[in-house]
Amino acid sequence: MRQIMGFLILTSYLWVGTVWAQSPEALLDRLSQSQSRSVSAGLIAQIWARWTGAAADAEQQKLMQIGVSQMNAARYPLAEKTFDALIALNPNFMEAWNKRATVRYVLGDFNGSQDDINEVLAREPRHFGALSGLGLINMQRGDLSNAIRAYEKVLQIDPFSQDARVLLPKLRKQVDKSNL
User: Fold this and answer.
1) pTM of the model
2) Which domains, ranges and CATH numbers included, belong to the chain?
């Protein structure tokens, strides 16, 4: 019995370590093939953790934490300045661009938000958060066809995306009505 328990513990430890050691790219591959909402949720949490934690040094990681805290406290102008500083320090920190895109969207700066989303997608074309943001921007602009395309891409990456699953039928219905 002890040998079986030891084997199970070792196997679990190795499996968890292997999953946690996977790159965001490998996790995105697994996400697109996911067969359940719970597996998708776990993969998404790991992907976000990797993206948000991809700072080049402790100073950049601290700025990311500060910016996210400011966002969570609805201190959006201050958060935008924090992400400006972070991007100036490391223009390759993809998630800094994405966080600033979110802040700019909330502030109503759709052009600035889309510019930042373009930076994110140039670095990671499967960034489901940026694609969702692009869908929202296109909806705000009344560009329903491009909103549909963005959310279709989200579903290819995350088949269980609740936002895409809810919004796509509504958007398609609106487009169908306008084509009559």
Assistant:
1) 0.86
2) 24-178 (1.25.40.10)
